[in-house]
Structures are given as structure tokens and as C-alpha cells.
Amino acid sequence: MSDSGHRTILVSGGAGFIGSAFVMQMLATNTNLRIINVDALTYAGNLENLQAIENDPRHVFIHAEIQNTELMHSLCEQYAVEGIINIAAESHVDRSIQNANPFIETNIQGTVSLLTVARDMKLKKFVQVSTDEVYGSLDQHSTELFTESTPLAPNSPYSSSKASADMFVRAFHHTHGVPAVITRCSNNYGPRQFPEKLIPLMILNAMESKSLPVYGDGLNVRDWIHVNDHCDAIHRAYEYGIPGEVYNIGSENECNNLHIVRTILSILGKSEDLIQFVKDRPGHDKRYAIDASKAKKELGWKPRITFELGLRETIEWYQDHPEWCEHVLSGEYRDYYSQQYHRER
Ligand SMILES: NC(=O)c1ccc[n+]([C@@H]2O[C@H](COP(=O)([O-])OP(=O)(O)OC[C@H]3O[C@@H](n4cnc5c(N)ncnc54)[C@H](O)[C@@H]3O)[C@@H](O)[C@H]2O)c1
After folding, report:
1. Who has the most CB within 10 Å: 103, 234, 279, 311?
2. d(Cα 218, Cα 281) in Å, to the nearest integer?
């Protein structure tokens, strides 16, 4: 407990899609909590995502990189931080194919930096927000699921950097006793997702009656979960997760990309003629599917938002926030966004 009488945690990446949802959800549901939100504000980080809490004194925003170990250490000291939740990352597979270096710097070196601080300051908990992509790909036609004991077999530079980070988390727990847990979640959707990823890109293109570029045959399968359900799981992993353990998070909602694109077009009342199949992403994983029974049993977690409702509300959010879309897609982002690819993660 800090002098302010609050429990204080450091959350990294809290201006991004999942991080901003997490910070807002945590402050709304925990009156006695203060969050030190460290974000480098890369192209994917946006302070507009945090407008709802800009006057909340329990939210302290720090514009910094997590690789700055000295600063992370002094922030933890200054604010009497009890634990760290590491959400910051370079998160987009296509960008990692173009240049892997930022992924090494943020996802691997940044994680090691925060682990070092957690070790040196003997923090109470460390949560590493990882991804199901570290497990590689499942057969498109099988019914197999990723469990926590599925061997890591990352296929993209992005997922390799996340798997490397997971290995460092494991090592810092095993060697230094850092009380760390790892969550591995499936594909998220919801408000404020940067429109390089599949669902927001398709929504925005469909709204403007532009073509909807779909990789390959569009039959790649993902398990889609609403961001708020993921945030609830991260919270529970922080409170109840057993150090050294991994928790898979998923919604038992397997859909192929083409189905998602068709559903978006149908909700928006647009023609399927807008669908345009484009050359597949190199190394594109065929299927991800998650067995989340351990998180349900040990963390008392379950997903609550159905895909039908969550997708409708997400579409409405983008329709109601044209100024957000305009802002995040200004300048260089618009050039990137307008390339003829769909963006999956
Ligand atoms: N989006 C998904 O579907 C999904 C699924 C499973 C796991 N994850 C994981 O969840 C995390 C968040 O994903 P997201 O979709 O919200 O990503 P995002 O790209 O929307 O946000 C990432 C945030 O991290 C910040 N950041 C980047 N580099 C930083 C650095 N060096 N120091 C401090 N901040 C930095 C960015 O400014 C941004 O605000 C990632 O670790 C990702 O691997 C994402």
C-alpha cells in the first residue's frame, strides 16, 4: 500500500488497444487502485484512448519506453508499485515481416527490462500478456486445441519475439524467483483497435464502401474474444494466478476470416462484391484455437460477451467515432492502412 492509501500497479502499453481497455476497466472496478501507465506512444498508442480517465487522479500517465530500466526502477520506487502488468508490445505480424528489430527491442528487451525491475524490487506479481501465436499453427480441419503444454513453435517474427519474452519470464521466475505468470490469449476485437488489424480495417473499409482485401482463400481460422473479456482474465491472472504458471485465454469462438468479413458486410448492409482476395501473407498460420479450461478452473474466469453482440457493438463504436478514426489514420498511418492487405494482428 502506498502513502496515497492506494494499491499501485505499473501497466505498460496502456495507451494501446488492449492496454487502454484494461486500464479503464481496472479503474472502474477497483476504487482503491492507482495505475502508473507507461507507454511510448508509438503509432499504435493514442492518448485519445484514455480520454475517459484523463482527470482521474488514480491514473498517472508516463510517456516512456519500457526498455529504460533505470526509469522503470525509479517509477516503481517513487510510486510504491506492488506489481507490473506488461501489455506493451509491437503487435502487428505484417510489420514484423517488414522489420523485426522493433519487435526484438520492445517485446524481448523491454520485457527483460521490466523483469529486472520486478526482480530487483522484489515486486509482488508480474503478469506477461502473451499470445496464442507462440504455439504456431493448428491443422485447419482438425479439432485440436492449444493447451498450456503445447510446445512453442512460433512462425512469424512477431510470435518469435513474444515466445522469446515468455522464455525470459520463465527464466526469471525459475532463476530469480520473480512471481510471474503468463497469459496467452487468442485474437481480440473491440473498440479502439488500430485499423491495421482485420476487424477494424474491414469495418472502416466497408463503411466507406471500399474494397475489403482478404488474404489467400480467407479460410484462416482464429478464436475471437472481446477485449473486455481478455482484460478480465488479465486482472484475475494478476490477483489469483500462481507464479510460474501459464494461462490460456480464449472464447471458443472459432471463425474464419471470410465469415467475419461477410458478417461485417451483412451488419452494415453492404454488398459482398466489395470482397477482394489478395496474395496471402508469407507464412500465414492456418488455425489457432484455445483450450481455456485451466483459466476457467483456476482463475474463476469465463468470457461473457457473445461474438454476435460484441461485433455489433464494435461496429457501432467505429460508426460513432469518426474523429478517432480520422486522427489515428492521419499522415503516415493512412499510407500504411491504404495498402492492399488486410491486417490480422
Ligand atoms: N490484439 C490481439 O489480438 C492480441 C491477442 C493476444 C495477445 N495480445 C498481446 O497484447 C498486447 C497488447 O496488444 P494490442 O493489440 O493492444 O497492441 P497495440 O499495438 O494496440 O498496443 C501496444 C501499445 O504498446 C505501446 N508500446 C510499444 N512499444 C513500447 C515500448 N517500447 N515501451 C512502452 N510502450 C510501448 C504502444 O505505444 C501501444 O500503446 C501485446 O503484448 C500483444 O502481444 C494481443
Report:
1. 234
2. 11
